[in-house]
């Protein structure tokens, strides 16, 4: 039987039953354990991953290492040490067999070691720097990079940004077609807590370039203009790819009550060969509203030649040469500026109150 003088020794179960599973997550009282069995030997380490608290025991074994099911961090199944060269470890636990049962000492043999790492730039506090209103334009048109074509939606976006610059605002154009970024890999599908801010992909892959979009939307811009073509009744594929990756922004609200987007305005430019403008804009407004954006009156401009118009060369010339559409692009900016001016003033006032000793937003704390 277990050592009665040490209450930390606890029975895990019958040895023969525990041998049937190569890796399993166990809860012994309030302690989570990743128990493994390989080559005739048991191993026990903490079932809580260092990175984001993932359940190690629900992962997989690669040789003698446990691979976390959330973000693929690896720890030795017996010692708890991370892979060679990584100065990190999860606690390990002593095991012993008595009779037909396996027991564990809940007092760890080794301690948890967090690997030193530099904080990601996107994890900083969200503070609007002083200055004029800032307008970010996001073009979602996909095209051949070597031989680019004219984009009607980006053409109107350029008109909007030019009008903003003439009015003294700072502008930034982001072409998703110029960025190399991975598609969302479904970390939220593993667990809501596996979807992190900054985005898990952004943290793990230094070559992923969607950080330009995160930087603009969360930190830099007061106004965001999103331009997209219509593709088979929906927005363009690059728009969808971007919004799937923006799930990490919305998920902070639902999981941590952290609103990353505050006092910012969004508006839309939607151009398509076939008509489905209202449905496309409706979906875009719903999504960006869920992120925290506000909308001006009449928050979009759009153009379509209808379902039967297959003469896209005429569509391009019509949009490019339409004084009405380009004037509409300028007026769209004006409506956004009017709303953003009020919101930025409100935000500055709220920040002033917070600095006086009262927290204006949950995000005013350093841990956001």
Explain the overall architecture:
The chain is an alpha/beta fold and 368 residues long. It contains 10 helices and 15 strands. The protein has helices spanning 15-18, 152-166, 187-190, 200-204, 211-220, 237-245, 247-256, 277-291, 312-321, 323-355, and strands at 9-14, 23-28, 31-38, 41-46, 60-62, 65-67, 74-76, 95-98, 101-105, 134-139, 170-175, 223-231, 234-235, 265-272, 300-304. The strands form 4 sheets. Strands 10, 11, 12, 13, 14 and 15 form a 6-stranded mixed sheet that branches. Helix 2 links the parallel strand 10 and strand 11. Helix 2 packs across helix 10. It is elongated, with a radius of gyration of 27 Å. 35% of the residues are buried. Residues 1-5 and 352-368 have low confidence and may be disordered.
């Amino acid at each position: 039987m277990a050592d009665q003088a040490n209450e930390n020794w606890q029975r895990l179960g019958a040895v023969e039953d525990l041998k049937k599973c190569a890796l399993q997550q166990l809860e012994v009282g309030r302690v989570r354990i990743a128990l493994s069995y390989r080559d005739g030997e048991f191993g026990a380490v903490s079932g809580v991953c260092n990175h984001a608290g993932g359940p190690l025991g629900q992962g997989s074994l690669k040789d003698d290492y446990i691979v976390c099911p959330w973000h693929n961090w690896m720890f030795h199944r017996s010692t708890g040490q991370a892979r060679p060269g990584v100065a990190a470890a999860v606690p390990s636990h002593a095991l012993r067999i008595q009779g037909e049962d396996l027991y564990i000492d809940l007092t760890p043999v080794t301690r948890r070691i967090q690997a030193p790492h530099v904080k990601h730039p996107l994890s900083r506090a969200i503070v609007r720097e002083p200055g004029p209103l800032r307008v970010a334009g996001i073009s979602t048109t996909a095209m051949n990079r070597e031989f680019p074509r004219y984009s009607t939606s980006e053409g109107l976006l350029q008109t909007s940004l030019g009008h903003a610059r003439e009015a003294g605002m700072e502008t930034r154009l982001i072409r998703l077609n110029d960025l190399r970024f991975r598609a969302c890999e479904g970390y939220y599908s593993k667990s809501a807590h596996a979807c992190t801010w900054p985005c898990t992909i952004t943290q793990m892959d230094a070559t992923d370039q969607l950080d330009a979009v995160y930087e603009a939307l969360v930190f830099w811009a007061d106004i965001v203009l999103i331009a997209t073509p219509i593709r088979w009744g929906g927005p363009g594929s690059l728009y969808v790819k971007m919004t799937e990756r923006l799930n990490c922004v919305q998920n902070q609200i639902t999981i941590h009550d952290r609103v990353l987007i505050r006092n910012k305005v969004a508006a839309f430019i939607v151009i398509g060969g076939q008509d489905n403008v209202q449905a496309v804009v409706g979906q875009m407004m719903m999504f960006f509203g869920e992120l925290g954006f506000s909308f001006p009156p009449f928050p979009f401009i759009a153009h379509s030649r209808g379902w039967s118009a297959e003469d896209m060369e005429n569509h391009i010339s019509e949009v490019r040469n339409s004084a009405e559409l380009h004037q509409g692009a300028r007026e769209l900016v004006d409506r956004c500026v009017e709303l953003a001016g009020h919101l930025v003033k409100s935000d500055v006032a709220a920040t002033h109150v917070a600095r006086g000793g009262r927290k204006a937003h949950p995000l005013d704390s350093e841990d956001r």
